[in-house]
Amino acid sequence: MQFDAHKYSYPSRRNIVYAKKGMVAASHPLAAQAGLDILKKGGNAADAAVAAAACLTVVEPTSNGIGGDAFALVWSKGMLYGLNASGPAPASIPKDIIERMEGHGIPRHGWIPVTVPGAPSAWSTLSKRFGRLSLAEALSPAVNYAVEGHPVAPTVAESWEKAYRAYRIAFKDEIYRHWFDTFAPKGRAPRAGELWSSPDHGKTLQDIGETNSETFYRGSLAETISDFAKKTGGYLSGEDLAAYEPEWVEPICINYRGYDVWEIPPNGHGIIALMALNILKGFSFERKDSIEACHCQLEAMKLAFADGLKYISDRRSMRVSPEELLSNEYAAARRKRIGSKSSMPVSGRPPEGGTVYLAAADGEGNMVSYIQSNYMGFGSGIVIPGTGISLHNRGCNFSTDPSQENCIAPGKKPYHTIIPGFLTREGRAIGPFGVMGAFMQPQGHVQVIMNTIDFHMNPQDCLDAPRWQWIKEKDVEMEQGFPTDAVQGLINKGHNIRINPDPVSFGRGQIIWRDEEGIMVGGTEPRADGTIAAW
């Protein structure tokens, strides 16, 4: 069976976008258009992805920023490359940090959850290895939007308002004053359609572009960041920033019904999606929303998460390898645990041995699956004065249990939730896909892949379809619009179902598929301000 962008068994609920020369799918129209503009100026998919990513730090600061992390899968000249631009905990994190937490876990805000940001390094690394234009040129649209301002999009405005209300109550310490100065200069969150600008953010992006991100890690910006940390009791130092380099990693995959599904290896949790699909390929499903299909998906997801939460950590700390977790033998053993009723998730033992996602493709065959995040909205709440840099809080995913592989330690990378996906068949690229949204991400990946391969849905319908999300134990949230008979059938099987009216809870995705004729077809997220810019 060959992939054909024109043949789907489901009619589209929205217009499908086709293109030949280039396509950028992003959660914000201005970011997608910025990527397309870069393509038209002679850039390729890598340049477009970097342009859109930098732009998103300006137009969607509620989900990502300069001070966040990033991951990418890049298809170039018949090969798939993986980039892990996540950072470790600072070297000066106190060795008694676990005792200081007093059993409460890593806090969401403040300096403790701040790890070394990797996003600027991702931009410069992708630009240098795969791009055609200079980093400064790729970042120029983002600089312009930051300096001149842009009208705030509706979904962004809603998230901004929620964050402002929460922070106004939670952020009493002086250290958080700079967040309000930067993101609520009028004493409130900006409203939909209102012009918002951040000249400091623009100057920072310009400096990053002109120095290929050196200023952020070994220059004046690094000095500004480390000085502010010293003055306010932070742990992030100039030495931490100077020592940081992103990692090129070997992508991991499983074969699902003739297609290879690719993810970044741990410390990211893309492997959870692969483990779930590896279990599910042992079943046959005729109808998308059948009770049996939904039940098996949820049970497989629980089993995969149970293993992922137990074993995923900084790759150097993992006692179990990705290959062991993804073996067909282990998948078969886990599959046997799925019965006719909902079960409690239990980890196994294999045999020894707030985020933005975008996709970009050009007419030459290059394709990029890219994701970056500050986590939990704006991140740590710490903004470096005079820079527009909002630092992320990825360290809050560390465990404080010394027996856990993901326990916090100096220089260690945490369990990471942001994951780009990629699909190939018989050595040929089908394309990039992703669904942002913390622990929803691998669940969204599984649903998108099954919608595509099992249920023959076009990219837009894949993203439009109502989603489910396993929360914990037997608790499941279903999106409004999910078939009533399926919901009742799952309740009868012992699942604790709650209908969640908030669509943002179910993630936000983008897809670009390419057929054998080179025709691109894209889908964008209806739960955000997403759009597809095509050429």
Question: What do these coordinates show?
Answer:
- The structure is a single chain.
- With 535 residues, the protein is α+β, with helices and mostly antiparallel strands.
- 35% of the residues lie in helices and 19% in strands.
- The protein has one domain (1-23, 61-128, 206-463, 470-535): Gamma-glutamyltranspeptidase, small (S) subunit (Glutamine Phosphoribosylpyrophosphate, subunit 1, domain 1, 4-Layer Sandwich), CATH 3.60.20.40.
- A hairpin with a 2-residue loop joins strand 3 (69-76) and strand 4.
- Helix 1 packs antiparallel against helix 2 (45-59), helix 2 (45-59) runs parallel beside helix 5 (135-148) and helix 12 packs across helix 13 (291-311).
The second-level CATH architecture is 4-Layer Sandwich
Radius of gyration: 22 Å
Q: Hey, roughly how much beta strand do the residues contain?
A: 15-25%
Report the mean per-residue pLDDT as an integer. Answer: 93
Low-confidence stretches: 5-11
Principal-axis shape equals globular
Oligomeric nature of the chains? single chain
Number of strands: 21
* Spatial separation of the terminal alpha carbons: 28 Å
Number of helices: 18
What does the largest sheet look like? 7 strands, antiparallel
Name the helicity range.
25-40%
Whole-number count of domains: 1
Lateral strand order in the biggest sheet: 1-20-19-15-14-9-8
What name is given to the CATH topology? Glutamine Phosphoribosylpyrophosphate, subunit 1, domain 1
The named CATH superfamily = Gamma-glutamyltranspeptidase, small (S) subunit
Structural class: alpha+beta
Q: Which CATH first-tier class would you pick?
A: Alpha Beta
